[in-house]
Write a structure and sequence with these properties.
The complex is a heterodimer of chains A (287) and B (176).
Chain A: E1 4-6, H1 11-20, E2 24-27, H2 31-39, E3 46-49, H3 56-59, E4 61-64, E5 67-71, H4 76-81, H5 83-88, H6 90-97, H7 102-107, H8 110-116, H9 122-129, E6 133-138, E7 143-147, H10 148-151, E8 152-154, E9 157-158, E10 164-172, E11 180-188, E12 199-207, E13 213-221, E14 228-229, H11 231-237, H12 247-258, H13 271-283
Parallel strand pairs in A: 1-3, 2-3
Antiparallel strand pairs in A: 4-5, 5-10, 6-7, 6-10, 8-9, 11-12, 12-13, 13-14
Helix pairs in contact in A: 6-9, 11-12, 12-13
Chain B: E1 3-6, E2 9-18, E3 21-28, H1 33-40, E4 59-62, E5 65-68, E6 81-83, H2 97-104, H3 114-131, H4 145-151, H5 163-175
Parallel strand pairs in B: 2-6
Antiparallel strand pairs in B: 1-2, 2-3, 4-5, 4-6
Helix pairs in contact in B: 2-5
Classes of the chains: A alpha+beta (287), B alpha+beta (176).
C-alpha cells in the first residue's frame, strides 16, 4: 500500500489541494479507504487527509430552529453521544448505534458514510429517511445544496464533482403541528456487530395532536443500487392514524415500500430473502 | 509537520505522546499506527490480528478513545496521546487493576485478544467516568451486562466465550 498524503489544516488549504491534485481520494475516518487500498493498490494516488482540518463547520454540530447541521467530519461516535439526536432523531441515533463497532465509530464520519455511497450505508439510510440536505463546497468557495436522495447516483457513486467536497449535512426539524415522532432504524444482518446490512429500513414519522400522520420519511438500504426514499409509501401514510393502521393498510404500505427494492443475490442473502424481510419489517413499524 | 524528501520517498516528521512519553519519528505517508507501535517503538503488546478492523486485537487509545490501530494512519497520531497496553502497567511494574481482574476472573486463555480487550475496557471505564453513561438508553450508575457487551463488540475472542471477560468488566465497574 503506497500513496502520497497531504494534510490541509484549513478550509482554504483544502480547496487549494483539491484544485491542484489530479488523482486523489479523500481520507476522513479512513476505515473504508485503507481497507480498499490494502486490497487494491492505486498507482500515484494522493490521499487528502481531512482529519487535521480545524474548522468547526466541517466537524462540529449546531442546532437551530430550522433543524440540525453537522459537519461532514462529525463522527458516528459523536452522533451516538448527542442528546438532541438521541431524543428527537432516533433513526439517526440508532443507525450510528448499529454501525460497525465501538472502535470504528470513534473515527468513522458521517461524510465518509455518505461519500462511500454503499447501498447498505447505515447513517446514509437514516439521513435519507430524515430528508437531509448535503452541502457541497466547490473550489470556487461557493457551495450548493443537494437533497440527499439525489446525492446518491449509483453503487459507490455520488453527485460530487471533481472540484467539490461534502462539507456538511442538515436535517430539518419537525413540522410545527407535530406532536409525536415515531422514528427508528431497523437493521437486519447475520450478526449484531461489524455487520453490513442484509436489509435495512429507516423511518421517521410525524403525527399531529389527533394522531394523524402529517409527514413520513421511509428509506430502505441494501435493497437497490442506492439507499432509496420510498416516496409513494410515505405519501400513502399521510392522513392515516399511526396507532390504528389496519392489517390491510400495513400490507398495502409494505407493498409500496417493496416497489422501491430491486435487490441482488450475493454472499449475504438472496434477492428473494431480502424482499421477504423488507416486506415484513415494513409492516412491523406500526405499534 | 515538516516534509523531507528521502530516497525519492517523502517522509513525514511526527511527534506524539506514547504512553505519556513524548516521541518523534519519521514515517511514510502510508504507515499504519499498528506497525509504528510494534516495529519502530517495539511495543509488541498491541497485537496484529485481522488487519481489517474486525477483531480489535490491535486496539489502542488515541486521546482516550479506543481505535483499531490497524486502520489508523500514523500521520494522524501527530500531536495526540497514544496509550498501548504497555502504558497501562503501573510505574512499579505491577499489573493494572484491569489486567489483574482479567486474570482473577479467568478471562485469559490464549491471550491474543487480551491486550485489545483490556484497552477497550479501559476506554469504557474512562467514558463512564466522564459521561456517567454509555451508548444505549438509560443513564444509570453501573452499565448493564448488555451495555458492556455492546461496548466490547469490536473485540473478538475465540477462546473464552466472553462470559468471563464480561464478568471481569462488570467487576471493575463495581470496584469503581
Amino acid at each position: 500500500m503506497e500513496f502520497t498524503i497531504i494534510s490541509p489544516r484549513t478550509r482554504s488549504e483544502l480547496l487549494d489541494v483539491i484544485r491542484k491534485e489530479k488523482n486523489f481520494r479523500f481520507g476522513a475516518g479512513c476505515t473504508d479507504l485503507l481497507m480498499e487500498l490494502k486490497k487494491k493498490p492505486h498507482a500515484n494516488l494522493t490521499v487528502i487527509n481531512l482529519s487535521q482540518i480545524k474548522d468547526v463547520q466541517f466537524s462540529g454540530f449546531k442546532k437551530s430552529a430550522k433543524g440540525l447541521r453537522f459537519g461532514a467530519m462529525f463522527t458516528a461516535h459523536k452522533i451516538l453521544m448527542n442528546e438532541e439526536i438521541r431524543n428527537n432523531y432516533t433513526a439517526l441515533h440508532e443507525s450510528a448505534f448499529n454501525l460497525a463497532s465501538t472502535q470504528i465509530r470513534q473515527v468513522a464520519t458521517v461524510g465518509g458514510n455518505l461519500c462511500t455511497a454503499s447501498p447498505s450505508g447505515d447513517i446514509a439510510c437514516a439521513l435519507v429517511a430524515l430528508d437531509a440536505t448535503c452541502e457541497l463546497l466547490s473550489t470556487s468557495g461557493k457551495s450548493r445544496n443537494v437533497i440527499i436522495s439525489d446525492f446518491f447516483t449509483g453503487v459507490r457513486k455520488t453527485a460530487l464533482k471533481k472540484n467539490e467536497v461534502l462539507y456538511g449535512i442538515s436535517v430539518p426539524s419537525k413540522s410545527k403541528d407535530t406532536k409525536d415522532v415515531f422514528s427508528n432504524f431497523i437493521k437486519v444482518g447475520t450478526r449484531r456487530s461489524m455487520e453490513c446490512s442484509v436489509v435495512s429500513l429507516a423511518y421517521h414519522i410525524q403525527v399531529n395532536k389527533f394522531g394523524e400522520i402529517i409527514k413520513a420519511g421511509i428509506a430502505i438500504g441494501a435493497s437497490a443500487p442506492t439507499v432509496r426514499f420510498a416516496d409513494s409509501a410515505c405519501k400513502y401514510l399521510i392522513g392515516k392514524k399511526y396507532k390504528s393502521i389496519s392489517e390491510k393498510e400495513k400490507e398495502e404500505f409494505a407493498k409500496k415500500v417493496l416497489s422501491y427494492a430491486s435487490p441482488i443475490t450475493d454472499i449475504r442473502a438472496t434477492a428473494w430473502y431480502r424482499k421477504e424481510v423488507l416486506f415484513n419489517i415494513s409492516k412491523s413499524i406500526f405499534h | 509537520m515538516k516534509k523531507i524528501k528521502y530516497n525519492k520517498e517523502i517522509l513525514h516528521d511526527i511527534s506524539f505522546f506514547l504512553n505519556e512519553k513524548k516521541v518523534s519519528c519519521q514515517i511514510k505517508a502510508s504507515t499504519i499506527l499498528l506497525d509504528l507501535i510494534r516495529d519502530v517503538f517495539e511495543l509488541k503488546g498491541t497485537k496484529p490480528g485481522c488487519h481489517e478492523g474486525e477483531c480489535g486485537a490491535c486496539t489502542v487509545l488515541v486521546d482516550g478513545a479506543p481505535v483499531n490501530s490497524c486502520l489508523f494512519l500514523a500521520i494522524n497520531a501527530n500531536g495526540k496521546k497514544i496509550t498501548t497496553i504497555e502504558g497501562l502497567i503501573n510505574t512499579d511494574g505491577s499489573l493494572h487493576p484491569i489486567q489483574e481482574t482479567l486474570v482473577e476472573k479467568g478471562a485469559v486463555q490464549c491471550g491474543f485478544c487480551t491486550s485489545g480487550m483490556a484497552m477497550s475496557i479501559k476506554a469504557m471505564l474512562n467514558q463512564y467516568e466522564n459521561a456517567q453513561h454509555v451508548p444505549g438508553d438509560i443513564i444509570q450508575d453501573l452499565p448493564t451486562r448488555e451495555e458492556i457487551k455492546k461496548y466490547l463488540e469490536g473485540n473478538l475472542c475465540r477462546c473464552t466465550g466472553y462470559t468471563k471477560i464480561i464478568d471481569a468488566a462488570e467487576e471493575l465497574f463495581k470496584q469503581g
